[in-house]
C-alpha cells in the first residue's frame, strides 16, 4: 500500500465543491423534513484516511476518531488516481445500523501539506482566508479550513501552490520545542474573482508530545496566528 500523497500545488479551483455541499445539505434538510427517514437522514461527514481500490474508487476509510468505514460498494472518487493508496479525504456517508457497512455519498480531497524547514528562495505568502483550524481527534493532524481566491484563467496549466514552512525551532524545558510555522501560498497569476473552500491537513508525526506550534497565515485582513499545544 502506498503512502499518503502530498500536495504542494493544486489546479485553479472552481465553485463545484461549494455548490455540491450546498446541494447535499439542502437535500438532507428536504428529505428529513418530508419523511423523517429520507436518503440523507443518516448522513455524516468525517475527516479520514481513505484506501483506494482500483483507480478512482475508495474501498474503506478510517476516521480521525478511529472508526473504520467499509463501503457497501466502491465509492467513485475522480481524484484518487493511484490504486491501493492512502488519501486524506472528507467523506460524506450514511449508516443505518451500528457495525454495518456504510454507504458512501461523496469524498472530497483534503490537501496534505508537506513541511519545508527554512524559507524557500522565493517565499510566497499571498493572502487567503482561514475559517478554522483544529487538532484532529487522534492528534495526528492539524486541520485547516481555508478559502482561496480563484477564477477562470486562460492558461490551463496555471496553478496556485499551498504548502507549509517552518521558520524557527526554539528549545524549551526538557525535550519540548516551540515551532514557528507559516503557510506558503503562491497565487501564481490565477484571477482572484471569488472564494472557494479548501481543506488541508498538516501531519504531526514530526513533532513531539508537549511541543507548541505557532501557525501564521497571511489573510486579507492581515496575519493571523494560531497557537496549538500537542497533548
Gyration radius over CA: 19 Å
Low-confidence stretches at least 5 residues in length (pLDDT < 50)? 7-36
Average pLDDT, to the nearest integer? 84
Ends apart, CA distance between termini: 29 Å
- Shape verdict: globular
Structure characteristics:
globular, single chain, 6-stranded mixed β-sheet
Would you mind describing this structure in some detail?
The protein is mainly β and 231 residues long. The chain has one helix and 15 strands. The chain has one helix spanning 16-35, and strands at residues 9-11, 43-52, 57-63, 68-76, 86-94, 103-109, 111-112, 115-117, 129-135, 141-150, 159-171, 177-186, 194-203, 212-219, 222-229. A hairpin with a 4-residue loop joins strand 2 and strand 3 (57-63). Residues 7-36 have low confidence and may be disordered.
